[in-house]
Amino acid sequence: MTTRVAVVGDETGGATDAVRDAGGSVVDPSDADVVAALGEDALLDAAADPSAPLLPVGAGREYGGVARPDLEAALASLATGDFAVVDRPTLAVDAPGVSARALADVTLVTTEPAKISEFDVDAGDRGVGSVRADGVVAATPTGSRGYATDAGGPRLEPGVSAVAVVPISPFSVDRTNWVVSPPLSVTVARDETGVELHVDGRVQETVAVDESAELTWGEPLPVAVVPATPHPPRVD
Question: pTM of this prediction?
Fold first, then answer.
């Protein structure tokens, strides 16, 4: 059986040739059995409304997948049907003027460097904590290997049904972060400058005092796993 493969992103010409050389059929994403997304932007665009399982290629450490040098071998695996599909958890994000889905993380951050605000974190009807910081990032197990790790947060195993909530450059020297299960909310309790909402690194809207980003589990994202990457994303 011929696998129908779509390739999205920049510089796809060589990639589509590799699919055909391996015996696969190159099609549009809407008709594909699997989609190879070349680069982070292509992955996030495709993940917004996926038509088939996605293979991240050169998309960054938090998204797993394969590196660019392994692209040809990965495409050959897709073309021959030698891949599995796993579900990655996502977060549904609701805030004033925003309805989005995050594969990696959701961040509330001040618009000016070194300017702090105060943020309240709640899980359901339970107050988790309050922190004065440059911002707060809430990361899925996938995203816990990216910006959240750089901010000092824990790395979550892929199967953990929880989110890492990590302050960014907190004012207190007593560094605190949390691992909680959605639903959860992050509220701007006080601002000394503007606060922006970012979803997977992309700016969405400005969030005012007393406004919140509400996070629940979203629809899982199907991700293709080729033999070179049996356990994405990497733990180290």
Answer: 0.87
